[in-house]
Design goal:
With 267 residues, this protein is of the alpha/beta class. It has two domains: 3-103, 60s Ribosomal Protein L30, Chain: A (2-Layer Sandwich); 110-264, SPOUT methyltransferase, trefoil knot domain (Alpha/beta knot, 3-Layer(aba) Sandwich), CATH 3.40.1280. The protein contains eleven helices and twelve strands. The strands form two sheets. It has a seven-stranded parallel beta sheet. The protein starts with a strand and ends with a helix.
């Protein structure tokens, strides 16, 4: 379709990019609208490499050649705007050159995602998009086979999650779980032991758990502050804790995921 210069932030062709900083709004309209926003050439390249399809591209004129190189000969509209229009439209100063509105792929069944997996990460109700993105990056870098997220967990395809993950949300297989009663059965039927990373009097230290690591492990992580819910702990087979020093009782959830994944990596 080629590049089209647009001078009005209210133009309906730009609707996918409007109010990107309004988290409450975007978490509703993006899944319902079947889209997500990819920000920066690197992230868009990884999305395209994963087979995701762009709906359109938004770019400032000085980066037009970069946007054209990204989409190649694909029949994708490229909307070219000034920096002022981009900021008025999105709600922030766009410094990363190019944004793309992408078709959101359908989520695969849980059974498909965990088939053949030996180490999966389970995220319960983590609402901070930065932590979700950082955990995906750790999962990709440290050898987790998949990520499963609870019904109320933050969207891994939200713009900030994607950016913090450095595009690894397109690399690591993931999907949403049902509620715990059904999720526990699905994981147990597939041969996984559920290991809850949490503080508890009867918790096993991470190094001790790693020494007897089961063949298939589902590592459960909860939100900052509250941690895993009572329901999650009740379905867990084992509670695992990272031994700490210096009067510190725990790590940020993303940091904790990296430590645990390193210790539980394939040997």
């Amino acid at each position: 379709m080629g590049a089209t210069w647009i001078s009005d932030a209210a133009d309906e062709r730009l609707a996918d990019y409007r109010d990107l900083t309004d988290v409450a709004l975007r978490r509703v309209i993006e899944p319902e609208g079947g889209l997500y926003i990819a920000e920066s050439a690197k992230v868009i390249s990884r999305a395209l490499a994963a087979g995701h399809r762009p709906r359109s591209v938004l770019v400032q004129d000085k980066w037009l050649s970069d946007a054209e190189a990204l989409v190649g000969d694909a029949d994708v509209p490229i909307h070219v705007v000034t920096a002022e229009v981009a900021q008025s439209l999105t709600g922030y100063a766009v410094h990363r050159g190019v944004l793309a509105s992408m078709h959101r792929p359908a989520l695969p069944p849980v059974a498909d995602v965990i088939s053949g997996a030996r180490l999966v990460v389970v995220l319960e109700d983590i609402v901070d998009h930065t932590n979700v993105g950082a955990i995906f990056r750790a999962a990709a870098g440290l050898g987790a086979d998949a990520v499963l997220i609870s019904p109320r967990c933050a969207d891994p395809l939200y713009r900030r999650s994607v950016r913090v993950s450095m595009g690894t949300v397109f690399q690591v297989p993931w999907t949403r779980l049902p509620e715990w009663s059904e999720a526990r059965a699905a994981l147990h039927d597939a041969g996984f032991e559920l290991a809850a990373l949490a503080l508890a009097d009867d918790a096993v230290s991470l190094d001790a758990y790693s020494a007897r690591r089961p063949e298939r492990v589902a590592l459960m992580l909860g939100a900052e502050g509250d941690g895993l819910s009572r329901a999650a702990l009740q379905v867990a087979d084992t509670v695992v804790t990272i031994p700490m020093a210096g009067g510190v009782d725990s790590l940020n959830v993303a940091a904790a995921s990296a430590v645990a994944l390193w210790e539980l990596r394939r040997r």
